[in-house]
Design brief:
The protein is mostly beta strands. The chain is 8% helix and 20% strand. The protein has an 8-stranded mixed beta sheet. The protein is globular and about 60 Å long. The two termini are 32 Å apart.
Length: 454
């Protein structure tokens, strides 16, 4: 059972008073996706806007370091998996974004001095902080810590209650779960939720003051990926602002050799569109099927625990103890042959699924040409009024710099694989949305720079 959490609706047991101004949600209609499991560096996965800061990280830090809030701070730090003294350092490396998809997370209430975890579905438009691997970390408006969803995204029952009525545009097929990117990001490419043709490249750990803009309509060529490993191909696509779709059968090992892509090398796609990879010894490594993850979302080991092998942070210093580990493989390699799926994205094309991320890999300078292509449609606001400021009506700004794309530290050695989480209990909870056996689909995207603030 998953509890729905609507944008702008206060939590019943939040860590902090939602009227304290920690964050503001926005009006965003959930985008169609290409597979229920999305990686944290997927182009266009998250959004931003020109509105004033949506997450007041400084105020959150003041709350959590206030001696009067020591009990809450200890519970909050335990939920995140860091020592209480590490809270300021942890918060400094988080980045504010807006959800562009209804997103599954492990949320936390604060009850009787403890952080009580529960699975929840956050509505698109909710402001959150993400960590260096693109993983949801904090719900801005209440400061509640967030962790990866561990269940099977294809077997959920969503419960709408406590003022969280089913929102307009809700569709099971648009629900996503996010797994950490296999590398520490240096920039996160966002899509302006009010002007989807405008991309925002935001350095990790900044609040919008260092944003740069890019044009999400720019077309980009699919690189020649034959012979590359699956991990290398995934990173190349992400750095170009293109996404890898999942077919619900799990991902092959990062070291699996790519034999072909669909569409093939040289094809031009819009920002955030999908490329299906085929690997040696199997069929599609990642494809355009409608399925979600065949099992639970892989959860990285807690910081400091045995097996935590997170990629080094983008800063010049060494890796920090609370840095999230590299994302493990979400499944076993495909063992059957098959043909490549379509390369067109579910909704990351100009029709409204723009997403973060063109640019160059960390080993090279960003492309000198801003992205382009056909203009994506605007994000459609939901029917319920949001708590954020009204959307900006100004025309998209000129591209102020070349779209830098998501850059990151080099990946670590072969990722650790983890088993999938067991399916949810078969006991029948009281729900308003029956569980479906259909897998959830999702469509990521990622972009480059922008000069806006969120």
């Amino acid at each position: 059972m998953v509890k729905a959490v609507a944008a702008g609706v206060p939590s019943l047991a939040p860590f902090f008073d939602e009227s304290s101004g920690l964050g503001r949600d926005a009006q965003v209609r959930s985008k169609a996706v290409h597979g229920g499991l999305q990686q944290g560096d997927t182009p266009g996965l998250y959004g931003g806007s020109k509105q004033p800061t949506i997450c007041d990280v400084d105020r959150l830090e003041q709350f959590l370091t206030d001696p009067a809030q020591d009990r809450k701070a200890r519970a909050w730090a335990r939920a995140v998996g860091i020592p209480t003294a590490g809270i300021p350092d942890y918060l400094e490396r988080l980045t504010p974004v807006l959800l562009r998809h209804d997103t599954l997370v492990k949320n936390h209430d604060y009850k009787k001095g403890k952080a009580v975890p529960y699975d929840s579905l956050l509505q698109a438009g909710i402001a959150i902080l993400v960590d260096q691997q693109g993983q949801p970390a904090v719900k801005c408006s209440c400061g509640n810590p967030l962790r990866p969803f561990e269940g099977d995204s294809g077997r959920i029952s969503v419960e709408f209650e406590d003022g969280n009525e089913k929102w307009q545009g809700y569709e099971r097929s648009r629900v996503v779960a996010v797994r950490p990117a296999p590398r520490a990001l240096q920039r996160i490419a966002l899509v302006d939720v009010e002007e989807p043709e405008r991309g925002i490249s935001r350095p990790v750990g900044t609040r919008g003051e260092d944003d740069s803009a890019f044009d999400t309509r720019e077309r980009r060529a699919v690189p020649n990926l034959a012979g590359a490993t699956f991990g290398q191909a995934s990173r190349q696509l992400a750095d170009k602002g293109l996404a890898v779709g999942y077919d619900g059968k799990g991902l092959p090992p990062d070291g699996a050799k790519v034999t072909a892509s669909d569409p093939p090398a040289g094809s031009e796609l819009g920002f955030g569109e999908y490329v299906t990879l085929s690997v040696a010894g199997g069929g599609d490594a990642a494809g355009g099927g409608q399925g979600g993850s065949s099992g639970g979302v892989a959860t990285p080991p807690a910081p400091g625990s045995p097996g935590a092998t997170g990629a080094p942070p983008p800063s010049s210093g060494g890796p920090r103890p609370d840095t999230p580990p590299a994302a493990p493989s979400s499944g076993t390699p495909s063992g059957t042959s098959g043909t490549s799926g379509t390369g067109s994205p579910g909704a990351s094309s100009p029709s409204g699924a723009g997403s973060p991320g063109p640019g160059s890999p960390s080993s090279s300078a960003p492309s000198s040409r801003p992205p382009s292509g056909s203009a994506p449609e605007k994000d459609t606001p939901s029917s319920r009024p949001p708590s954020s400021a009204p959307p900006s009506t100004s025309s998209p700004p000129e591209v102020t710099s070349a779209p830098p794309g998501v850059t990151s530290a080099p990946p670590t050695s072969a990722p650790v694989t983890t088993g999938t989480a067991p399916p949810p209990s078969t006991s029948a909870p009281v729900i308003s949305e029956p569980a479906s056996s259909d897998p959830v689909t999702s469509t990521p995207a990622r972009g480059a720079p922008a000069d806006a603030t969120t």
